[in-house]
Design a protein that fits this description.
The chain is mainly β. The protein has a domain at 20-26 and 43-72. Helix content is 0%, strand content 25%. The protein has strands at 20-24, 49-54, 60-66. A 3-stranded antiparallel sheet has the order 1-3-2, with no helix packed on it. Strand 2 (49-54) and strand 3 form a beta hairpin. The radius of gyration is 15 Å and the shape is elongated.
């Protein structure tokens, strides 16, 4: 059985924030019981920085930092 999972998180702040730093745990585990065929993390607006690491429990985590939007 193949599954496709789509997750959307949206933040709306009033007033707008100056900076946004986030850590997410959204990549499924690859185990003997389940095979991860692909994973894609699509972040909008495009973050200034993205890094990936694994926590002490083996979970993949992604950290990203978004620049503040400039309104003209």
């Amino acid at each position: 059985m193949k599954l496709q999972v789509t997750h959307e998180t949206r933040y709306d702040y009033e007033p707008p924030v100056e900076t946004a730093q986030h850590m997410v745990f959204l990549q499924p585990l690859h185990t003997p019981q389940q095979q991860l065929l692909s994973h894609q993390l699509d972040i909008r607006p495009t973050p200034e920085k993205v890094s990936h690491s694994v926590d002490v429990f083996g979970n993949a985590r992604s950290f990203f930092h978004c620049k503040p939007r400039i309104n003209n």
